[in-house]
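Protein 1 of 2
SEQ + STRUCT:
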Amino acid sequence: MSVKASVSLSFQQEEFARKLVEDGHFPSLTAVVERGLELVREETEMREEDLEALRALIERRRRGRFLSEEESHERIEALIAAKKTQYGL
């Protein structure tokens, strides 16, 4: 089902949309606007999925074991030493 809506565009937006139609990328200005809205919807959904994944990661990390300052320092030093060895330093 389609819904008619009035949309105001800036001169630059309208010019760009008409060029896309003239160049054969879209059949109409309506198709350009529809595609733009679809891209915004997809971007919004991806951002929400990314945020949910980040929240889940933070929650898993929060429930996990934390390293003491000493353990953390030892691991960092071991990583640095391994990289130095890898590069022959």
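Protein 2 of 2
SEQ + STRUCT:
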Amino acid sequence: MNASKNVLGGALLACSYSPLTGFYRTGCCETGPDDIGRHIICVRVTEPFLGFSRTVGNDLSTPRPEYRFAGLNPGDRWCLCALRWKEALEAGVAPPVVLEATHESALRIVDLETLKAHAYSATQGPGA
């Protein structure tokens, strides 16, 4: 059972099982000492963000079968590196955040008010 907390102080909910996400590929944005990139912010991917990510050297939309990665599409949910989300925010293309599935340690990098301003509710439409 996952005892991690989300940024709202509740239990950390799953971000996505399809595509399977998380540094540990558990579906949750859990983190640990091996997760140097801090894949802790659950987002709902957008086309502008995917384009931005590609231009900064992280192509998340191209399938990579050798890694069993089908590529992301707009609307998919994904555990994103906190610093990448912050970088996208500064570029004006930050994808919406699923607060209930975003790990509490994200608050060390982005304040709660900013995350709330970019929130996407886990109860709105497709997801995990």
